[in-house]
């Protein structure tokens, strides 16, 4: 009973300490050292007087101590991007491999963070570790930034006593995953932006340029050719019902997004459609296989039980179709089937992937073979994205030229006709 009471008191005191630390304010200070050299830095305290006292204790003469201003868009700063987590993973892995204590590593990385929200997260995780929590437990307070897979890998590293090695593996995994995502975004961004500009140009012409030509043709009493009539009617429709088109497009996009979130069947249907697209579908499929192979390889190497890791692996594929296939594999492996057999039953993995997995299982080097599969498909994604960019450039120019050029030609056809009759 006494032990429980003492434990409760310790927990209460730790909670009070953490609450007290959260009330501290960050100050920027400028001071002169013993040589008269100007020094500057940052420090957290309850008030500026305590900062000045601490600087004097360190032998410096404080000049200015100012409270750090809050970010323009709220106290939390910007959102934490996956790239931030990838960079942090590499930093913490490097520091721990170099022998820097974990708490000190977190303090150094947090101090160097420009993202205020992520800095606060790392500071809170550091305080949790100082309070006696394991790293995976401290990270568990932030499941959005550090997902289940990340925490499971860290937990496996802590349990096996090779946390620095696991963190290095996690860092490589995050870097490779973000590289693939960046490649796919790059492949999609260029054509989407060009088509958006083309639609914007066409809209401006229909609203402002075509009506001027239409009025000129009307005043001249010219007979309009069919292409010109189509453009003029489209302009009249746009001027009268632009609001309906705007709401229709916005409503359609909103409806698709909401339906995807609320309906599993619809989301599955969209994912299947995306995977069947001529070129982009192949990139998405190869990307999903690469993520699956690398994620499973990382978890297996870290010592996470296969069945336990499958849920996290399913979420890491980035595809609903492949995610469901992994969950099906999990159920098959749970009842004693080999991984390669379970993989074959899904029908979504190429024969090469299945065969390499089988070789890895038989040789006892499953993680090594999975990493080979991941590297192969990551390279395939890189090549496919480069090829896609090369193919899309002339296609986009044709579409852009067809939309804008066709409209211009349609407007000048009556002028050419009038010139021919004079």
Question: How does this structure look, described?
Answer:
This protein has helices spanning 2-22, 48-57, 82-97, 102-111, 116-130, 135-139, 148-160, 163-220, 226-262, 264-275, 280-302, 306-316, 320-334, 339-346, 351-363, 366-421; strands at residues 25-32, 38-45, 61-67. The longest helix is centred in the middle third of the chain and has 58 residues, at 163-220. The termini are far apart. It is 77% helix and 5% strand. Strand 1 and strand 2 (38-45) form a beta hairpin. By secondary structure, it is mainly alpha-helical. Residues 1-22 and 71-77 have low confidence and may be disordered. Helix 9 (226-262) packs across helix 10 (264-275) and helix 9 (226-262) packs antiparallel against helix 16 (366-421). The protein has a three-stranded antiparallel beta sheet with strand order 2-1-3, with helices on one face. The protein is flat and about 90 Å long. It contains 16 helices and three strands.
Brief characterization of the structure:
The chain has 422 residues and is mostly helical.
Q: What is the CA-atom radius of gyration, in angstroms?
A: 30 Å
Total number of beta strands = 3
Shape: flat
SSE sequence, one letter per element: HEEHEHHHHHHHHHHHHHH
Question: In which order are the strands of the major sheet placed?
Answer: 2-1-3
Keywords: Cell inner membrane, Cell membrane, Membrane, Transmembrane, Transmembrane helix, Transport
Family: Belongs to the GSP F family.
Subcellular location: Cell inner membrane
Membrane topology: Multi-pass membrane protein
């Amino acid at each position: 009973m006494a032990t429980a009471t003492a434990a409760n008191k310790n927990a209460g005191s730790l909670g009070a300490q953490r609450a007290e630390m959260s009330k501290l304010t960050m100050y920027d200070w400028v001071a002169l050292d013993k040589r008269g050299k100007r020094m500057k830095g940052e420090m957290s305290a309850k008030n500026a007087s305590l900062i000045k006292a601490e600087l004097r204790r360190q032998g410096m003469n404080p000049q200015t101590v100012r409270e750090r201003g809050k970010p323009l868009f709220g106290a939390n700063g910007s959102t934490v991007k996956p790239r931030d987590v990838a960079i942090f993973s590499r930093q913490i892995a490097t520091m721990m491999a170099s022998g820097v204590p974990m708490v000190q590593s977190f303090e150094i990385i947090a101090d160097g963070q420009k993202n205020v929200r992520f800095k606060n997260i790392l500071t809170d995780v550091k305080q949790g570790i100082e309070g006696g929590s394991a790293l995976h437990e401290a990270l568990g307070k932030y499941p959005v930034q550090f997902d289940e897979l990340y925490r499971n890998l860290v937990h496996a590293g802590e349990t096996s006593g090779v946390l620095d090695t696991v963190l290095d593996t996690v860092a490589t995994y995050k870097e490779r995953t973000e590289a693939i995502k960046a490649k796919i975004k790059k492949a999609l961004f260029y054509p989407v932006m060009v088509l958006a500009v083309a639609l914007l140009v066409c809209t401006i012409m229909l609203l402002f340029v075509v009506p001027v030509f239409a009025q000129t043709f009307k005043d001249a009493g010219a007979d309009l050719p069919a292409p010109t009539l189509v453009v003029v009617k489209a302009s009249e429709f746009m001027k009268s019902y632009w609001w309906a088109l705007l709401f229709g497009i916005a409503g359609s996009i909103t409806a698709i997004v909401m339906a995807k979130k609320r309906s599993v069947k619809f989301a599955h249907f969209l994912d299947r459609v995306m995977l069947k697209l001529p070129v982009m579908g192949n990139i998405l499929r190869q990307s999903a296989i690469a993520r699956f192979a690398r994620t499973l390889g990382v978890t297996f190497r870290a010592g996470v039980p296969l069945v336990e890791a499958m849920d996290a692996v399913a979420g890491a594929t980035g595809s609903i179709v492949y995610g469901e296939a992994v969950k099906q594999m999990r159920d098959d492996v749970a009842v004693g089937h080999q991984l390669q057999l379970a993989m074959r039953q899904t029908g979504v993995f190429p024969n090469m992937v299945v065969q390499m997995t089988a070789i890895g299982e038989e040789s006892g080097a499953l993680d090594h073979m999975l990493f080979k599969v991941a590297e192969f498909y990551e390279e395939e994604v890189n090549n496919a994205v480069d090829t896609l960019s090369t193919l899309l450039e002339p296609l986009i120019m044709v579409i852009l030229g067809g939309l804008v050029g066709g409209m211009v030609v349609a407007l000048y056809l009556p002028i050419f006709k009038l010139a021919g009759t004079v």
